[in-house]
Design goal:
Layout: H1 2-100
Length: 101
């Protein structure tokens, strides 16, 4: 009688071990899938950061060029204003000279 009981206990413990190993394998597979998803997300975040950095650099270059263009335009306008002031002064002097003759 003891042999069938021992055989049943051995069979039950083997089934429990197989079931336990399957559960552990499932847990391991889930862990691996989670890690893979996290790695993919990290890559996406790095790519987004690189793209944002490149776009920021491009925007900075555009802003710098716009500032330089505005500076040149302002300098040209100021130079033109100086010439106009010189011309107005020369005309006024000529008018005074003409009145004094």
């Amino acid at each position: 009688m003891k042999t069938p009981i021992l055989l049943l206990l051995a069979l039950a413990s083997t089934a429990a071990l197989i079931s336990c190993n399957e559960k552990k394998a499932a847990i391991e597979a889930k862990k691996d899938a989670t890690k893979d998803a996290i790695d993919e997300r990290k890559e996406a975040v790095n790519h987004a950061a690189e793209s944002a950095t490149k776009q920021t650099d491009a925007n900075a270059e555009i802003s710098k060029a716009n500032i330089e263009a505005a500076n040149r335009a302002a300098q040209a306008q100021l130079d033109a204003n100086k010439k106009m002031a010189d011309a107005a002064a020369a005309a006024e002097k000529a008018r005074v000279d003409a009145l004094n003759k």
